[in-house]
Amino acid sequence: MQHKKKTIVVLFGGQSSEHKVSCVSATTIMNYIDADKYCIVPVGITKKGQWLLYNGPLEYILTGEWEKYGTPTILSPDATQKGLIKIMGEKVKIIPIDIVFPVLHGLYGEDGSIQGLLELAQIPYVGCGILSSSVSMDKIYTKIIVDREGIDQAHFVKVLRKELSTMDSVVERIEKNISYPCFIKPSNAGSSVGITKAYDRVSLEKGLLEAAKQDRKILVEETIVGREVECAVLGNDHAKASAVGEIITDADFYDYEAKYHSETSKTIIPADLPKKIVEEIQDKALRVFKSVDGRGLARVDFFVEKDTNRVIFNEINTLPGFTSISMYPMLWEEQGIDKKTLVEQLIQFAMDQE
Q1: pLDDT, average across residues 16-23
Q2: Are strands 38-45 and 51-53 parallel, antiparallel or unpaired?
Q3: Residue 46 gets which letter from DSSP?
Q4: For a surface tag, which of 76, 257, 260, 265 has the fewest beta carbons within 10 Å of its beta carbon?
């Protein structure tokens, strides 16, 4: 007897600064979803926030042409419907769905917003829930949680956008607590968007104003000199940690340009580190994941400090990229889990939440 296919909605695009990265990640994921088991329904969200049901070549998602061929649609928050509302002029059609794979990076996708809508609709979805998504997206609150866990991290100062009207006092407070060079980061942003490195007061002020374009909360952080490493986490209550990978870049730091456009940036998997350090990174990755109540997947980033080999937490990403150069799927491939198997496992972990 042939089992009925489950309908899986893949959400992509979104209103965040990572719209394009989301489109690439979603295209990769859809290529690896088992079409024999699932009816794949792509739904794109434009930068303006319009939802469009898309039924066309996946290549158009990469070029942005998909928007021309989309049909207006809404994901109903009504838990008795559990479906999409397809709008065709004055008519509507309900499309029942079984599961959602929200491949939305950054604001409105990785911060608990879409997770809240899916919880209202009572539709299973891939990835972390509302709490873990929201606190992990907010770098400042992640730091507060990780500090309670007793895991080493960089010293930081919190700045609010409204405080920048008295720039001199803000700069003085930062300089009292952190030495140059330092990093300025929007508290809620991904793919290193809006992050700058300051070497003096002039570049600090400029960086604060740049970060304020992205978020009302700004994190100013000490510079850690060391190797940048990443560890993937997969699973729910009994999650496991992957191999450890290292980021090598000629850029001053691993910013958006270095991540997605630099030909000199590269990853080394597995990282050439002592076994004891690797195990410490894996242990701390799982501790961070559990401390934010993570489920499904996450990538946890650390520094291995130069000279001391001290493992220092950097950040956690609850919906890491799935592009051809993304660390998350490559780390699991090193462990013998190919992309198709990985995507299927993520879907199954989501279904286990029912």
Answers
A1: 91
A2: antiparallel
A3: -
A4: 257
